[in-house]
Amino acid sequence: MWSLTAASVGAVVLSLSRGGWLSLLVMVCLFFLFFSKGRVRLSRALTALGGLLLVLSVVVWMTVPAVRQRILVHPDEIFTFHGRTEIWQHYISAVRESPVAGWGYGDRIIWAKGPAVLDKDMEAEVPEQFRIGTHNTVLFVLYHQGIIGLAAYLVFVASGCSALAKALRNSAADGGLYVFSLFTVLVGALFVHSVIESVPFAVPCIIFGLLSGRQQWKNLECRSACLP
C-alpha cells in the first residue's frame, strides 16, 4: 500500500508543469508554517522558510543546467510568463468585442463567427477552434461567458471562501488539519495556478464539496451528541 502511494505521488509530482511546481511549492510553504505554529515564533518560521528556499534555489541553479540555461538564454520569458502576456492581450481584445455574454458555452460552438487569436508558432491569426488557450482562469470565464458568467463564478468562489474561512476559525480547537489542507489546495491549485493556467471549474467544486461534506458530518455528530 505504501509503495503504491509513493509511486502515485511520484508520478503526479514528476508530471507537473512549471505552474504546477509553483503551486506545489506554495502549498508546501503553507504546510511548513502550519506545522510550525505553536512550536516556533512566526518570524522565526518565516526566516527559516526563506533560508530554505534560498538554499534550494542555489542548489537547483548549480545542479540543474537546464534551469540555468533557460533563465540565461530566455530571460524575457520570466517577465512575459513564457509568452502568456502576449496571449492575454489577444484574448482581452476578443473580450472587448463581446464583453457581456462572451463568445458562447462549451467547445467549438459557432466559433466561425468568433474572434481570431494569435497562433504563437505560426505567427498568424487562426480561428478559435485552433486556439492555444487563455492560460488564465478569470480570462477564460470572461472570454466564454462574459461579465455575466464571471460575476456568477466570482460569487460562487467568494461564498465558498467565506465558508472555508469560517470553518478554519471553528476548527482551530481540533487542530484543523483537514480544513487547512482544503485551504492550501484552494490557494495553490486555484488562486496561484489560475493566474497562468485555465483551472477547470471542477477544482473549486471538489474543494467546496469536501468542505460541505465535513460540515454535514459535524452537524450529524452534534445531533447525535444532543440525543438522549
Percent of residues in beta strands: under 5%
The oligomeric state of the chains shown is single chain
Q: Structural class of the secondary elements?
A: mainly alpha
Helix count from the secondary structure assignment: 9
Mean pLDDT: 75
Descriptive report:
By secondary structure, the protein is mostly helical. It has a domain of 148 residues. It is built from nine helices and two strands, in the order H-H-H-H-H-H-E-E-H-H-H. A two-stranded antiparallel ribbon has the order 1-2. Helix 6 crosses helix 7, helix 7 runs antiparallel to helix 8 and helix 7 runs parallel beside helix 9. It is globular, with a radius of gyration of 22 Å.
Entry summary:
Helices cover 68% and strands 3% of the residues. The chain is an all-alpha fold. It has a domain of 148 residues.
Fold topology:
Elements: H1 2-14, H2 18-36, H3 42-63, H4 65-73, H5 76-79, H6 84-97, E1 117-119, E2 124-126, H7 137-170, H8 177-192, H9 202-226
Antiparallel strand pairs: 1-2
Name some characteristics of this structure.
228 residues; mainly alpha; 9 helices; 68% helix; 3% strand
